[in-house]
Design brief:
Helices cover 56% and strands 11% of the residues. It has 200 residues and is an alpha/beta fold. The model has no long low-confidence stretch (mean pLDDT 93). Its main location: cytoplasm.
Length: 200
């Protein structure tokens, strides 16, 4: 199966672009969706997280206490690595299973931290980056999530730089306040190119 890794910083519009590909019949595998599923009530990661971090990180419904964990991993790099040691292998296994089961000419794998992970580049045929300015990212996330500018900047600071994402990209979609028609035209162009590559 021909695999395109779709990435971009927070607020870049990855989900919008992914949904445009899905509307053209391309199956999506979203690592964020998988991450939420494995940490949902009684998700496969939860026994390991409870054993590693303690019952206080498990919410009453059996899911991950996201707010508590977010606070911990933002302030403690070792804790972040311990959490990733549990979740990343499970996410990878689930991603590979969904890729195998995907029905379509090629598959898009949505990986927000593709550049940061270091291993994804070798697991996809093409890297597609959704790009926009940092100013646009801040405005979108403040509007969408109700975060302060400083909160958004703190998240951006923990992600790969815009320059690093562009350097890792085989293909780029410009989503710096592009109207939907312009975004669709870019997706159509990439879709045609990926169909051609997938069919060899």
């Amino acid at each position: 199966m021909f695999v395109v890794g779709l990435t971009g910083g927070i607020g870049s519009g990855k989900s919008t672009v992914a949904n445009l590909f899905a509307a053209r019949g391309v199956p999506l595998v979203d690592t964020d969706v998988i991450a939420h599923r494995i940490t949902a009530p009684h998700g496969i990661a939860m026994p390991h997280i409870a054993a590693e971090f303690g019952a206080e990180f498990v919410a009453a419904d059996g899911s991950l206490d996201r707010a508590r964990m977010r606070t911990l991993v933002f302030s403690d790099e070792t804790a972040r690595k311990r959490l990733e040691g549990i979740t990343h292998p499970l996410i990878r296994a689930e991603t590979e299973r969904e890729e195998r089961e995907a029905q379509g000419p090629y598959v898009i794998v949505v990986v927000p931290l593709l550049v940061e992970s270091g291993t994804w580049k070798g697991r996809v045929n093409r890297v597609l980056t959704v790009d926009c300015s940092v100013e646009t990212q801040i405005a979108r996330v403040m509007s969408r999530n109700g975060f302060s500018g400083d909160q958004v900047l703190a998240i951006i600071a923990r992600q790969a730089t815009r320059e690093a994402r562009l350097a890792a990209a085989d293909d780029v979609i410009d989503n710096d306040n592009a109207p939907l028609e312009a975004l669709e035209a870019q997706v159509d162009a990439r879709h045609r190119a990926y169909l051609s590559l997938a069919h060899g």
